């Protein structure tokens, strides 16, 4: 199988992005699967055009987009992308849409069709904190998750795709030492597990990972 | 106008539910609007049948369902309900669905059509912490939000509806004194503001309330 | 008995101080005890001179100093003041001492001699979140706690005294709606309970309120 | 110089202790300094007898005791130990003292005489989150910090000593994936930096690391 995995440029005043750092260091082969790594701009809509171009040229079976979730302590496997842009800070081209649909003709949301429960279980099993997340926010990360699933739905129906949020690196968290962070090696290991699990599992396991609110 | 506002029974080992306590104490008239108060069972699907029956008998213009969000510090105005039940704890009839759609024929999500930004701004203006939330979880609260919007979409297209999460009461938070809570009077005031704002605002204001992730 | 209870001026960019607001609204009589209320400046050393002058003029049996602990969710009954000033932000006269002893000839710390466990239990019993705290920080609040106990030790050996931290008011927390806060009425009730318990209890109850770290 | 560095046994239901794991993996030589590693029991008073025996046999110039601080995100350099035991959970010999002095004849507290500000700055400089902490709790960690400084004060006046709290390892945090954790390699690196900085710095740097409360 071919796995396309994307990171993001730095944004929000950070000089690096843990998603980019981790994705870039992934091996090109995971067992007998090919791993193709790309970086997306943190720009509404432009990120999706870049993603679509990568899908066209790579023809992946699995797509995992990865973004930074400053403030979260573990790996977040995102369940759902919603059809809204609501930017608290401008993107890297200074756009800050408020309550704009990503696709005015699209549904309100798409669920990831990765095996999110199996991925969460496998990362946890490896000793790395992970959980299913029910919100990818309303910024470029959610935008890319929604847009990815919209592309899959409309143009690439045999592809499985989804989004994973990763914590700050320790070097980013030193500015506010109560902020949680994760070592780059553990982020890389978690992404490898996510990619392999996505190749191996058909459907998903049935295991509660719900939240009360 | 007529406003139907619902609370919930206690659940999860609590002996009271702040949503029920607050809803029950609302006045029957807010300015010249009628306020009709009901309590829903914390039971998947049964809650929605009860809600539909209340809508039929009350014929409201506005519906606000209110639930407890233990651990949150402020009033949460929910933006979106997603088409999934994933119960971390059993409901009050001992059901614990995992990754079941609420409506197998429904869309992945519905957005609330209340003026969520205007409500958030008005509660904040009154000195009570409030924010837009992008996840109502995957338990009975999200179930009711999704189901309410599904009912509105299918049977009551002229109704505006949505969901508001409220913090623990102080008396619930004493068990874990670092858990945030809110005074019952402030919860009541916030719900009154939400109801009035829903009556008064057509559409919504444009004000960023996004989250990065 | 006579209880001297002090609040503080606003500081750190806030336009009010919940300690001042609550102390000011206390009744002048609690049962048959006299309550004398004063406000201290948020200024290293000057606060202690003001406190000593108040003690001289009021001749209290009990002294409770009250300060704002932004970010804490419950009432904090402080256990200990330490002999150090380490200011992260300047005080209201623009002093910002770093690692200076409060009293160069004093011990490293003083324990409060209020019945901190009984106070915590009584506030909790009343349905208001409260806990014993093992650090009052290193700013003017800790300065006043240490200085108060130093005064008691040296000049007023029959007085019982200590320090209570109170959360933000809701109107302060609206700026960051995930910050916990407490209703003014509950802060006032907690301080009344603290004052009465201090009058009534000799020694303290034995009840674990420890923290692992 | 000779550095004695101690970890702790597991406690509180954990099957490992990050302090023990990290201390055990330290090199025996840091530059030209000797590093002697020992593990202390999580038992009030017994831990101090073991510590005193180690000091006698090792004759260190620097002593750094290291403990687990579950829930903290960064390395905590402790400023002060207080003369109180207040156990929320029993120790490993089932003792759970409440409000007992560690040394009935000792002062209320001792400050660490390690260069805590320089250590914090050096660890941060290396890209690892660290901060000065003003409370080591009231359990065995604080007990050992207070007891260590009491020993230094009474018997080993030329020794510099103190306490460092380290976060959960990721494998401990998987149980509650919102709990922060730190990679073992970063904990080890931080302890090496702390040890070397303690050897190299006389006195401490002047840099604010205070907390408001």
Largest interface: pair, residues per side: C-D, 45 and 45 residues
Tell me what portion of residues of chain A adopts beta-strand conformation: 15-25%
Structural class of chain A: alpha/beta
Give me the side-by-side strand order of the main sheet of chain A: 2-3-1-4-11-5-10
Distance between the termini of chain A: 37 Å
Largest sheet of chain A: 7 strands, mixed
Q: Fraction of residues of chain A in helices? A: 25-40%
Uncertain runs of chain A:
none
How many beta-strand runs of chain A? Answer: 11
What would you report as the Rg of chain A, rounded to the nearest angstrom?
A: 16 Å
Summarize the structure.
The first copy, chain A, is an alpha/beta fold.
Per-chain topology:
Four copies of one chain form a homotetramer.
Chain A lengths: L1 E7 L9 H7 L4 E2 L2 E8 L5 H13 L3 E7 L6 E4 L1 E3 L2 E2 L11 E3 L8 E3 L4 H10 L4 E4 L6 H16 L4 E7 L3 H4 L10 H17 L13
Parallel strand pairs in A: 1-3, 1-4, 4-11, 5-10
Antiparallel strand pairs in A: 2-3, 5-11, 6-9, 7-8
Helix pairs in contact in A: 1-6, 2-4, 3-6
How would you characterize this protein structure?
Four copies of one chain form a homotetramer. With 213 residues, chain A is of the alpha/beta class. Chain A is 31% helix and 23% strand. The first copy, chain A, has a seven-stranded mixed β-sheet, sandwiched between helices. A two-stranded antiparallel sheet of chain A has the order 6-9. The mean pLDDT of chain A is 97. Chains C and D meet through β7 and β9 of C and β7 and β9 of D.
